[in-house]
């Protein structure tokens, strides 16, 4: 129990604090809702009592599955565990990735009770302090979602209730959800915030049923000011869980408590979701998080480099931002990899190093480079507009749109600068190019047809390897 708790704690407090104060403690006993913790000396006892009681209580409660009071005593026993501390629990992001079933398995019936993993305390429902609004970069792809989350964090249950956030993997949903929790707690530590994945909700429920503690389960889940449920799509097909969640939802919503849900798809697209839940999910506000555009990718990389305190030159950032378009998690992963690679080889982080570090990923041989000719050809074909018209001066909507799409694709898919793109387009000014790029970028948010256009153009440009 203690090792798991320590593992959870490691993630929540500063490394230094952990090493100095908590690593040397031991769990002496747990009985009658009282956990006794042994500290090696008076100072440690005092520091823990002054600073770490609430985290301790929360983490222990998390691991035990019920709330306990915590008392610290001085225990002369050799408290320092000789075994290494357990690896810190997977961050929610990683957990979600591992747990994400393939689409094919999505609509299968829920597994039998005894096949489900037992309540796994490492599926921590504790907030990760890294996920805050201040570490979240806002761009056009996530502006709405960010604003909605801010509003909810500032005015729980008054702005949008429930708030339903959806979008693809690695686009920042978990980050935003937890940012709401961190923000609200920061403002008022008394607020009862609970962040859980829908899987944890399911597992808790199953455990409660098995231990005949459903009453405790209800008290725990219905006694909350802000409930943040991540990856709600996983309750699809699980009838028992949906039933229980339905009541949890009603109780909280009825009591004026805030509910925020995330999912990889909108409520309508969650198959085998009970209608009554679906309609409740649609009561409040539904917002999506989209793939980050070039600017946002660049800004995220820059911020991340600063956080890591590693000098990453802007040509490396541009290189990565151009090539890694899938999602933000991958973007971060690639930057980490490049930095690690440079460290290993004791070289500065250059474009050459980056391209070597990511050779297998970028796979330049397979993923052919797109040229401006390719883009002109495909766009011209797609819209049935002559290439000369695209380069020309015509202002009618049916040439302006393809022209702007060309600007957009040239900027996203090639290394051409704004000035170069302007030249390719019959000598246009770079501000015109910027305007065209932004126009498409903005419209992508609201215009599904345009999104389809761009997706199928990318597919044509990259053939099999389209991302
Ligand atoms: P999701 O839950 O949508 O799969 P996550 O919230 O786990 O995605 O995000 C994946 C990673 O990308 C996290 O490390 C997160 O901090 C980071 N991230 C996502 N969006 C942003 C953003 N706008 N600014 C900074 N970091 C971000
Ligand atoms: Mg997530």
TrEMBL record:
Similarity section: Belongs to the DnaA family.
Where are the residues of the annotated region Domain I, interacts with DnaA modulators? Answer: 1-76
Keyword annotations of the record:
ATP-binding, Cytoplasm, DNA replication, DNA-binding, Lipid-binding, Nucleotide-binding
GO cellular component labels: cytoplasm; plasma membrane
Enumerate the Gene Ontology biological process terms.
DNA replication initiation; regulation of DNA replication
Q: Where is the signal peptide?
A: none
Q: What is recorded about the domains? A: Domain I is involved in oligomerization and binding regulators, domain II is flexibile and of varying length in different bacteria, domain III forms the AAA+ region, while domain IV binds dsDNA.
**Where is ATP annotated to bind?**
170, 172-174
- Pfam families (alphabetical): Bac_DnaA (PF00308), Bac_DnaA_C (PF08299), DnaA_N (PF11638)
Q: Primary place of residence?
A: cytoplasm
For molecular function, the Gene Ontology terms on record are: ATP binding; DNA replication origin binding; lipid binding
Q: Which InterPro entries match?
A: AAA+_ATPase (IPR003593), Chromosome_initiator_DnaA (IPR001957), Chromosome_initiator_DnaA-like (IPR020591), Chromosome_initiator_DnaA_CS (IPR018312), DnaA_C (IPR013159), DnaA_dom (IPR013317), DnaA_N_dom (IPR024633), DnaA_N_sf (IPR038454)
The name under which this protein is listed is: Chromosomal replication initiator protein DnaA
Quaternary organization: Oligomerizes as a right-handed, spiral filament on DNA at oriC.
Region Domain IV, binds dsDNA: start-end pairs: 343-467
Protein's gene:
dnaA
Q: Where is this region: Disordered?
A: 79-98
Where in the cell? Cytoplasm
Q: What does this protein do?
A: Plays an essential role in the initiation and regulation of chromosomal replication. ATP-DnaA binds to the origin of replication (oriC) to initiate formation of the DNA replication initiation complex once per cell cycle. Binds the DnaA box (a 9 base pair repeat at the origin) and separates the double-stranded (ds)DNA. Forms a right-handed helical filament on oriC DNA; dsDNA binds to the exterior of the filament while single-stranded (ss)DNA is stabiized in the filament's interior.
Give the compositionally biased regions (Pro residues). 81-91
Per the UniProt entry, what species is this protein from, by scientific name? Herpetosiphon geysericola
Describe the location of the Chromosomal replication initiator DnaA C-terminal domain by residue ranges.
371-440
């Amino acid at each position: 129990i203690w090792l798991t708790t320590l593992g959870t704690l490691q993630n929540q407090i500063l490394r230094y604090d952990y090493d100095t104060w908590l690593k040397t403690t031991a769990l002496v006993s747990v009985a009658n809702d009282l956990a006794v913790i042994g500290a090696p000396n008076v100072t440690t006892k005092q520091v823990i009592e002054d600073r770490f009681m609430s985290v301790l209580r929360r983490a222990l409660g998390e691991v035990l599955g019920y709330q306990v009071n915590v008392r610290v005593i001085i225990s002369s026993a050799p408290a320092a565990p000789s075994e290494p501390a357990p690896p810190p629990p997977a961050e929610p992001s990683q957990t979600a990735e591992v747990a994400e079933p393939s689409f094919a398995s999505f609509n299968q019936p829920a597994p039998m009770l005894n096949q489900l993993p037992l309540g796994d305390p490492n599926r921590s429902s504790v907030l990760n302090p890294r996920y805050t609004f201040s570490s979240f970069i806002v761009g056009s792809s996530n502006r709405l979602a960010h604003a909605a989350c801010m509003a909810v964090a500032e005015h729980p249950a008054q702005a949008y209730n429930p708030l339903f956030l959806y979008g693809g993997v690695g686009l920042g949903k978990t980050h935003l959800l937890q940012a709401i929790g961190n923000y609200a707690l920061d403002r008022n530590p008394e607020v009862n915030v609970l962040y859980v994945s829908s899987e944890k909700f399911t597992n808790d429920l199953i455990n409660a049923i098995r231990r005949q503690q459903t009453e405790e389960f209800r008290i725990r889940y219905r006694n909350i000011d802000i409930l943040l449920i991540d990856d709600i799509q996983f309750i699809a097909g699980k009838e028992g869980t949906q039933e229980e969640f339905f009541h949890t939802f009603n109780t909280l919503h009825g009591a004026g408590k805030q509910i925020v849900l995330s999912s990889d798809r909108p409520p309508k697209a969650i198959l085998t979701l009970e209608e009554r839940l679906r309609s409740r999910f649609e009561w409040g506000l539904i917002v999506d998080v989209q793939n980050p555009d070039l600017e946002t990718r660049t800004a995220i990389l820059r911020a991340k480099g600063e956080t890591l305190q590693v000098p990453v030159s802007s040509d490396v950032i541009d290189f990565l931002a151009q090539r890694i378009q899938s999602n933000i998690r991958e973007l971060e992963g690639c930057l980490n990899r490049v930095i690690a690679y440079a460290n290993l080889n004791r070289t500065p982080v250059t474009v050459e190093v980056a391209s070597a570090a990511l050779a297998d990923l970028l796979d330049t041989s397979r993923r052919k480079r797109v040229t401006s000719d390719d883009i002109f050809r495909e766009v011209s074909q797609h819209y049935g507009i002559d290439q000369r018209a695209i380069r020309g001066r015509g202002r009618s909507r049916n040439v302006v749109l393809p022209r702007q799409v060309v600007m957009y694709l040239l900027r996203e898919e090639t290394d051409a600068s704004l000035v170069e793109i302007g030249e390719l387009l019959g000598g246009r000014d770079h501000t015109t190019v910027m305007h065209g790029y932004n126009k498409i970028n903005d419209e992508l948010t609201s215009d599904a047809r345009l999104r389809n256009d761009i997706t199928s153009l990318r597919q044509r440009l990259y053939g099999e390897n389209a991302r």
